[in-house]
Write a structure and sequence with these properties.
Length: 245
């Protein structure tokens, strides 16, 4: 048993009653075979369905479920989860079960081998195997071009839900993040870079899109673009992230 490592797996969940139990169960089945401690933190983000009940139905003592009444967005749920984490490494993953949890251990090994601050999954990594709808591919391409225009991040994909980082890094970044919805992932990386956490590595993923998860609408895409421009303004005009104490 590796007593120096404990992994906190944080899952934001909004109206995921169809998926959350299976997602949690897959993680437990996989990680019970590994040689380090872990916990699963499900943050039920103001769901209006039975997501909380389905998450609590799992009997593993490693599963912790937190819930609040008002939907605050993915970013707020992840910030909440980090505050509850007791591990020295945290992983963010999606409630829909798009990612095989066996990949988490590979990301941790990359984190440790390179003493990285972040290891993030990339759909554009040449070794990635991704089953992804055409519509989402188009949205992803457009968004990626926008990010390359405005930011100098050493990554090819900011939005893939699978990320691993040191808890100490997460707790320095999270208080400075403002975006609570989909552009949260980008803002997290921008804040990390501006605070000097530049050891960010990408890793290949295996991803099979779950069609029953909450979709991305044109309205959502427009909101992401607005939030992205606001991140640029805070980062490079106001210098907000480095001024904030």
């Amino acid at each position: 048993m590796n007593n120096e490592l404990k992994l906190s797996i944080i899952i934001p969940a909004y109206n995921e009653e169809k998926n959350i139990y299976q997602t949690v169960d897959q993680i437990v089945s996989c990680h019970d075979l590994l040689d380090y401690e872990y916990e699963i933190i499900v943050v039920v983000d103001g769901s209006t369905d039975r997501t909380e009940r389905e998450a609590r139905r799992h009997r593993s003592k490693r599963v912790k479920v937190f819930s609040y009444a008002k939907n605050r967005g993915k970013g707020a749920a992840l910030k909440y989860g980090v505050n509850k984490a007791s591990g020295n490494i945290v992983t963010f993953t999606d409630a829909g079960g798009d990612f095989d949890p066996k990949q988490f251990d590979k990301f941790i090994k990359v984190l440790e081998a390179f003493d990285a601050d972040f290891v993030i999954g990339s759909k554009r990594h040449p070794a990635s195997r991704v089953d992804y709808p055409l519509r989402r591919r188009v949205y992803s391409y457009i968004y990626h071009r926008l990010i390359r225009t405005f930011f100098r991040l050493p990554v090819t994909d900011t939005q893939t839900g699978l990320k691993v980082l040191k808890t100490t890094v997460a707790r320095k970044i999270m208080p400075r993040i403002i975006v609570k919805q989909y552009a949260f992932d980008l803002e997290m990386l921008v804040v990390a870079q501006q605070l000097g956490f530049r050891r960010i590595f990408e890793a290949p993923i295996e991803m099979k899109f779950n069609g029953s998860t909450t979709g991305i609408s044109v309205k959502t895409v427009l909101r992401m673009i607005t939030d992205t421009l606001a991140i640029f303004y805070r980062a490079y005009i106001l210098r907000y992230y480095t001024k904030k104490s």
